[in-house]
Design brief:
Length: 317
């Protein structure tokens, strides 16, 4: 008699099967045929890798006061006349290594950007599903809130909320300061997800599979969660990819204005603001290199978002 296959012998084959389907799918084929998407993915991977593993990759710890040398402050990059080989991109006014500061600063910018987008997705998708599926007064109320939020510039709302949070909690811990910043960016970011999901839900709720689920007595919450939600996540994924770059730029703007992340944990925006004071005196590297890294991160993420939008669009296949 043949032995009955156990769970342990069947489960490992499932993962390679899903991987094989992905590699044979249209999305991976589109990625391998797009040089722009490959280049953007490589740049984004390098930036994320250096940010996440900055403790091991960075040549120095720029925020360890015991290792800073004021005698090495404002040194030019290593290829210039007064540069030192140990400081490849030069140092700032405190003697901090620019290259190491970029890695640590990118970690903070990426964390704030991804976290704020995650909060926006959760709030926006939930309210969009509710508005599109319930309709009536609920839909009208949520959409009027969206209209009000869209009437204010996102950077102005974020600046207001962050300023109010810092005024209410002047001696707050760094963790609370990060939370206020994430909430400030998410406060206007959720609107686009809500409107996108609402439009897709209005289409999906009248289809046959939703009507069949209603007939057999499935609750509205279960229909939204198990049936409608998976079919409206495609545009959300594309929008979230693009909005990560916008969130990072908003965080950098707030930090440049002095109301972003705490001074003890400077991000790319803080590094640009510090270097801006020395730009006209000839120390251009202090602000130019953080600006270039910010542009590289935002541009690579935007290019990946544009590719993903085209790859998931069935009309372009």
């Amino acid at each position: 008699m043949s032995a009955v296959p156990t769970t342990s012998s069947v489960a490992p084959a499932a993962a390679p099967g899903r991987l094989r389907r992905f590699l044979d799918g249209d999305v991976w084929y589109s990625f391998t045929r797009s040089p722009v998407a490959i280049a953007a993915a490589l740049v984004a991977f390098v930036c994320v890798f250096c940010a996440v593993f900055a403790n091991w990759v960075a040549p120095h710890n720029p925020f360890d006061l015991a290792t800073l040398e004021l005698a090495d402050s404002r040194l030019p990059p290593a290829w210039m006349e007064e540069g030192k080989a140990r400081y490849l991109l030069g140092t700032d006014d405190q003697g901090r290594d620019i290259l190491s500061a970029l890695m640590y600063g990118s970690r903070i910018s990426l964390f704030v950007g991804v976290a704020s987008v995650a909060v926006s997705v959760v709030v926006g998708v939930g309210l969009g599903l509710l508005a599109g599926f319930a309709g009536g007064k609920t839909d009208a109320f949520i959409m009027r809130i969206c209209d009000v939020m869209l009437s204010f510039p996102s950077i102005l709302v974020a600046l207001l909320i962050d300023g109010v949070g810092r005024a209410m909690f002047p001696d707050a811990h760094d963790a609370l300061a990060f939370a206020v910043l994430i909430i400030a960016i998410s406060l206007t970011g959720w609107v686009q997800y809500a409107r996108t999901v609402r439009g897709s839900t209005l289409v999906e709720r009248n289809k046959e599979y939703v009507q069949a689920a209603r007939v057999i007595g499935v609750s509205s919450l279960r229909i939204m969660r198990r049936h409608v939600l998976p079919n409206v996540l495609g545009p959300v994924l594309v929008l979230a990819t693009i909005q990560v770059a916008s969130a990072i730029i908003i965080e950098a703007t707030l930090s440049f204005l002095g109301v972003g992340v705490p001074p003890t944990s400077p991000s790319l925006g803080t590094l640009i603001r510090v270097g801006n004071d020395f730009l006209l005196s000839g120390e251009w590297w202090i602000t130019i290199f953080p600006g270039l890294v910010l542009v590289m991160i935002a541009l690579s993420v935007n290019l990946l978002g544009d590719w993903l939008r085209d790859a998931l669009n069935p009309r372009l296949r």
